[in-house]
Amino acid sequence: MKKYIILYIAIFALTAGCKKDFLKENPYSAYTPSNLKDALGFETALVGLYNHVSTIYTWSDQQGWVSVWQVGTDVANATANQQGVEIPYYDYTQLTPSDGGSAYIWNRYYILINLTNNIIAGASDPSITAISQADKDKIIAEAKFFRAYAYNGLATLFGGVPILTEPLTGPKTDFVRATLADVNKLVEEDLLFATTNLPDVTAAKAARGNKYMAMQLLAEAYLRMGKPDLAEAQAAKIISDAKFKLITQRYGVKANEPGDYYSDMFVYGNQRRSQGNTEVIWGLQQENTATVTGGRTGDAQQRRVFVPAYYDVSGGGTLPADSLGGRGLGRLRLSNWVLYGLYNNKDVRNSRYNIRRTFYYNNPDPAYASRYGKKIPFTGVDTLFRIAPHTTKWGSYDPKDVFGYATIKDFTLMRLGETYLLLAEARVQQQNLQGTADAINVLRQRAFANYPAEGKVNAAEMTLNFILDERARELIGEENRRMTLMRTKTLVERTLRLNSDDKAKPVKGLTSKALLLPIPLNEIQLNKDAKLEQNPDYN
What we know:
Blueprint: H1 2-15, H2 39-57, H3 65-68, E1 76-78, H4 100-123, H5 133-158, H6 180-197, H7 211-225, H8 228-240, H9 261-264, E2 280-284, H10 302-306, E3 332-334, H11 336-340, E4 355-356, E5 390-391, E6 411-415, H12 416-429, H13 433-447, H14 464-475, H15 481-487, H16 491-498, H17 521-526
Antiparallel strand pairs: 1-3, 2-6, 4-5
Helix pairs in contact: 2-4, 2-5, 4-5, 5-6, 5-7, 6-7, 7-8, 7-12, 8-12, 12-13, 12-14
């Protein structure tokens, strides 16, 4: 075989003559402004942005990565089944510039920024005439959405950071931090362009960028920037559009099985707009690689983190099953506040289909006949990660993957339920307490069967803390809780007030220092030609 390959190259070289162009390197597998010249190239590069973003959620090498964003906050604690990367996020005395978690997210965001800059620069090239200006604007808008997504995340986690708006073509060692105001300005400009030029959700390609994604992100960014009036306007635009509706009726692949309309949203096969989910604004899709090659970027660990390791209960009486959420490892445990103080018992979000509190022996082997079908007691050596109440949102089971290597559910990154919460937050910041209650009551009406006799709230109850409580009720297991509390500057107060009683893995050393993460030490050391300033108290 080798001789034919050599012969082909020799013939090609002869037909090419002595032109030096034959030796010119043109790496079509790596998209740069110089080789992004046609619609297919831009399309492939844009799809690559979604692929890259998914790596933020599928870091398989560190199964505790999902825990980083939940433990050591008000909603969750680490367990004895932790893995390592999450340790500095509940034992804050170990959160230093050498931290692996903050380095990873910094890396993911800046790679995303450079990818978007390549696309923006390429689509802005006036010499490309085969693509209309309207189509170029759509390409740029999709890329700018992701650039804003990255910079908004960086601003939330690190404050002012270096700004890059041009592609990097080689090593750069003279980064300096921009002001937070300058980062905010770029985020706002990018998202305003995206809201104007991205397609409507009905015109967007499946799982691709639409203008409502940009509106939702802009509303959140405006809240972080202290511009609640502008945040309210963006959230209100989404809510007023009839294309999105809260799920209030059973639907989808398990509509005839035990469950409720809220739990239906998180069933595999129900999560997408095309599958009947009228609430989803942005779902980052995953596919089973057994049927779709390249369907995911890594083995997502969300199920292993959120679902307890019930299969490991002594006695062998329990097998991984769909009815119990599949095979979990219990790398975190919801806080006592969430489990015993957050929900009203009549709240559908607290139903047994949404917060699983009981487990049953299910091994049909005759050796376990005396246990079969009985409730597993909360007793024994460890009831914190083998048996613990948990959100069912990440439960899933593939009989072809009983070991449970990966979660193949979509990542629901934006949905209408959160839009109402952003609207409420914008209104409470403007002291419009009745308007705040009105927004919250839309969710409460969905959550309580006997509303308004039960569940309805009034203006006098409305505070930022109430809204953050409601975010936990509505979005537990979905939202990045750490980022929400860092954005609202409530991480320290709420964590110490609501989650200081865990005995197994208590929160340690949490101070206002943790309202920003450390700039990764490696980035500072490599930046030899300028000073990259560290965040306060991390030196």
